């Protein structure tokens, strides 16, 4: 049975992280430790998903079909081609509020790099390293409007020859203007959807 809310899914991602050994016990509450001990791993895994919620989302904004792969380019190359504009304080606060449970882990740190107008987080899981980079982008087709972009670099080893292989993908949020009440809602929802994709 999938989770009924993003908050519930995050809780169960923490429990799953403890059960798989990816999150140390000292980084979670006693409630999470007890749940990890008492609930079967297969049941926990079901609750980390948001199928019912994702099914109800607008196809044009947040479906996995909108996650685009970028062949034959590194994350660094893709980021250099997509210059961002600065985030304001409310946007930075939105990222701070989403650090717990991001990427199915305990707490991740979003690092703000002012020189390139981006926020990034690294998640390590089962021999795979994922770098999430968020940018605020001017919408080229609609002057005065913006999109948030999430660029993901996934590095894992190729089992055949033990070389590291990097895959790059990205997604864009819906278009918004720069009014505070609109952009913070769009950003908060966009971060949750990226997190729910479970890349």
Short description:
The chain is an alpha+beta fold and 199 residues long.
Structure description:
The chain is of the alpha+beta class and 199 residues long. The chain has helices spanning 6-20, 30-38, 41-47, 51-56, 59-62, 75-81, 89-97, 180-197; strands at 68-69, 111-113, 118-125, 128-138, 146-157, 164-172. Helix 1 packs across helix 2 and helix 7 runs parallel beside helix 8 (180-197). It folds into two domains: 6-53, no CATH class; 65-197, Porin. A six-stranded antiparallel beta sheet has the order 1-6-5-4-3-2, sandwiched between helices. It is globular, with a radius of gyration of 17 Å. The chain is built from eight helices and six strands.
| Ends distance | 20 Å
Largest sheet: 6 strands, antiparallel
Structural class: alpha+beta
Coarse morphology? globular
CATH topology of the largest domain: Porin
Based on the coordinates given, report the CATH architecture of the largest domain: Beta Barrel
Give helix and strand order, one letter per element, not per position.
HHHHHEHHEEEEEH
Rg to the nearest angstrom?
A: 17 Å
Poorly predicted regions are: 51-65
Mean pLDDT: 78
- Estimated helix fraction: 25-40%
Strand content: 15-25%
How many strands appear in the DSSP assignment? Answer: 6
Number of helices in the DSSP assignment: 8
Please write the CATH class name of the largest domain. Answer: Mainly Beta
Domain count, please report it: 2
| Largest sheet, spatial ordering of strands | 1-6-5-4-3-2
């Amino acid at each position: 049975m999938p989770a009924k809310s993003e908050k519930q899914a995050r809780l169960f991602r923490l429990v799953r992280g403890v059960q798989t050994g990816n999150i140390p016990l000292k980084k979670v509450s006693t409630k999470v430790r007890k749940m990890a001990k008492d609930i079967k791993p297969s049941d926990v895994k079901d609750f980390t998903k948001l199928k019912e919620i994702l099914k109800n989302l607008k196809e044009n904004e947040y479906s996995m079909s909108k996650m685009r792969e970028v062949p034959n380019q590194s994350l660094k190359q893709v980021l250099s081609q997509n210059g961002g504009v600065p985030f304001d304080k409310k946007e930075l606060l939105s990222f701070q509020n989403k650090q717990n449970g991001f990427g199915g882990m305990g707490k991740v740190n979003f690092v703000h790099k002012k020189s390139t107008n981006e926020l990034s987080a690294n998640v390590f899981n089962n021999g795979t390293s994922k770098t999430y980079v968020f940018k605020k982008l001017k919408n080229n087709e609609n002057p005065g409007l913006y999109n948030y972009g999430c660029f993901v670099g996934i590095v894992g080893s190729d089992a055949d020859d033990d070389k590291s292989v990097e895959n790059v993908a990205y997604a864009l949020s819906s278009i918004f203007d720069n009014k505070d009440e609109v952009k913070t809602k769009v950003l908060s929802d966009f971060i949750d959807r990226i997190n729910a994709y479970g890349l």
